[in-house]
Amino acid sequence: MRPIIIGVFSAFFFAFTFVLNASMEATGGSWIWSASLRYFFMVPFLIAIVLMRKNLRPVFSEMRKQPGKWLLWSFVGFGLFYAPLCFAAAYSPGWLIAGTWQITIVSGALLAPLFFTTIHTPGGTRKVRGKIPVKGLLMSLIILLGVALMQMEHAKQLSLENILFGIVPILIASFAYPLGNRKMMEVCEGRLDAYQRVLGMTIASLPLWFLLSAFGIFTVGMPSGSQAFQSLLVAIFSGVIATVLFFMATDMVRGSMSKLAAVEATQSMEVLFALAGELLFLSILFPSPISWLGIVIVILGMILHSYVSSVRAEKLVKQAV
């Protein structure tokens, strides 16, 4: 039960991303600074965490070996992930972005053939090319149905341009995030833990954020003190606290695929937490019954998808043995 509770708390802190991004957009803050400042602020916190774990030197050692791959996949995994999410905040409420973001489960499944899975057997280890999990995708259709219901209700009040700018960036981010992170896991080959890898990717993505910031200075001017403070909160709550809690929860159940799936399913709570935050602090309109139905369907789809994935993983291990 404890890992589930920790997983729910991580979803709570992850939801701050969507609420605060919506807040910054509502008060005239540019998505350029919402995206850039988060990663600038994350660097010192991540360095402190890795230093406390006495694992800082290997990060720079690994980055020096393959700088090109670090720059490329950090740009994909962090740049093409977070910048589009912040951009979408100008066109959709945070709870809707949080709900649509669950599409990343579908996107991640479609990317499976691009990667190999290491299977441990009594005779050693072997790599197996990933396959698109058909059953998992069927469960993912439930998530897509929920997202469609939420977006359909929202679309009644918006122009086609707003709909596209609110959805397409999230679709790009949903593929970029798992692609960049999985590619970096391949590059590291287990030599770095999650905290080290996130720190390395954050540092490697800094050239993008510096360029984006320079563009922001000449187009929208410097960020306000309020936006800088809220970006700092996003970095602390989502970039540090939520990530640490989620890794803690998954580490506690790493030996059980079913329990791991349950922890992963807790992330669907981001939608409810983001909605509650916007209702309380941003005074948004209460979602319609159709939107509520979509939210419930998304959460149900997340739970079913996680369960099917855990069953499939356990079968794969048994077949390998």
Question: How would you characterize this protein structure?
Answer:
The chain is mostly helical and 321 residues long. The protein has one domain (2-320). It has 14 helices and two strands. It has helices at residues 2-26, 31-52, 56-65, 67-88, 94-101, 104-110, 134-155, 160-188, 194-204, 206-219, 225-252, 257-265, 270-281, 289-320, and strands at 116-121, 124-129. Strands 1-2 form a two-stranded antiparallel ribbon. Helix 1 (2-26) packs antiparallel against helix 11 (225-252) and helix 6 crosses helix 8. The longest helix has 32 residues, at 289-320. The model has no long low-confidence stretch (mean pLDDT 84). InterPro entries: EmrE. Keywords: Membrane, Transmembrane, Transmembrane helix. This is Multidrug resistance efflux transporter family protein.
Descriptors for this entry?
single chain, 321 residues, mainly alpha, 2 strands
